[in-house]
Amino acid sequence: MPTLIARNLKSLEKALSSQRIKKKKIGLVPTMGAIHDGHLALVDKCLKLSQVTVVTIFINPMQFNNKKDLKNYPTSIRKDISILTEKKVNIIFIPKIKDIYPSDFSTFIELKKFDNMLCGKNRNGHFSGVATVVLKLFCLINPRVAFFGEKDFQQLFIIKKLVRDLNLNIDVQAVKTVRDKSGLALSSRNRLLSKGEKNIASKVNIILREISLKNLKSIKSILKKTSKKLYSEGVKKVEYLEVRNEKSLESYTYGKLGNNHYRVFVAVKVGKVRLIDNLRLTK
């Protein structure tokens, strides 16, 4: 069954209404393109659990608060199509901005919680943009299951909350972070790193792994030392470094909750590239 490529709303509707797809269980993998093995882990799980796999490629302008960052975001549409076609996904949806945000578009998801911390603290409107475009894709494609990576853990958390709050009949599946041999979390932005910068970025995961639940009695001291170590390895800026409960995103307070379900979250600048990562903490 050949892969269908939909480049506008009309062709998407036609593809979804075809007899070979209609009334089947649809799985959705939303991406911004520059497909890598992390995306393919989502695709593989979708292919396994769904009757129809739809992958979207759309660089969402509403989740960027920096025009230069939006302009520099890596793209490789032809290569992406080739990779996804080889995977035998059913539909690739590559909409134009006007398809998602027509000129009179004025409706956005407003988040009352969880968007003013971690990646949302210094990126005003970021998660409102994420939630809005994901909800729109849900409405257009009507999936029964959708797949998101744990690397963007706050995004995953917010999408799960969106589905619960709006009573959407969608199963949000989390997929573990895919890393390269050095432990660097795969990201489309990694393409923007020079060889030297990539070497620095690979140190981030190694340093984070030194944090464990055992030493969180002195959490402020531990995070301060970790931050200093990141800078000493060549990181240009540590935007945040925090330990939070993965079930609630509450900040870690020693003794308040049990010693389970905690993650360390980090955002750093390596050269001009902003990278994020997170790790579940163990004893």
Question: How is this fold's topology laid out?
Answer:
Blueprint: E1 4-6, H1 9-16, E2 26-31, H2 37-49, E3 52-57, H3 67-72, H4 77-86, E4 91-93, H5 97-100, H6 126-141, E5 145-149, H7 153-165, E6 171-175, H8 195-208, H9 219-232, E7 237-245, E8 262-270, E9 273-280
Parallel strand pairs: 1-4, 2-3, 2-5, 3-4, 5-6
Antiparallel strand pairs: 7-8, 8-9
Short description:
The protein contains 9 helices and 9 strands.
Features:
283 residues, alpha/beta, Pantoate--beta-alanine Ligase, Chain: A,domain 2, 2 domains, six-stranded parallel β-sheet, three-stranded antiparallel β-sheet, 9 strands, globular
Tell me about this structure.
With 283 residues, the chain is an alpha/beta fold. It folds into two domains: 172 residues, HUPs (Rossmann fold); 93 residues, Pantoate--beta-alanine Ligase, Chain: A,domain 2 (2-Layer Sandwich), CATH 3.30.1300.10. Helix content is 35%, strand content 19%. The chain contains nine helices and nine strands. The strands form two sheets. A six-stranded parallel sheet has the order 1-4-3-2-5-6, sandwiched between helices. Strands 7-8-9 form a three-stranded antiparallel sheet, with helices on one face. A hairpin with a 2-residue loop joins strand 8 and strand 9. The chain is globular, with a radius of gyration of 19 Å. It starts with a strand and ends with a strand. The model has no long low-confidence stretch (mean pLDDT 94).
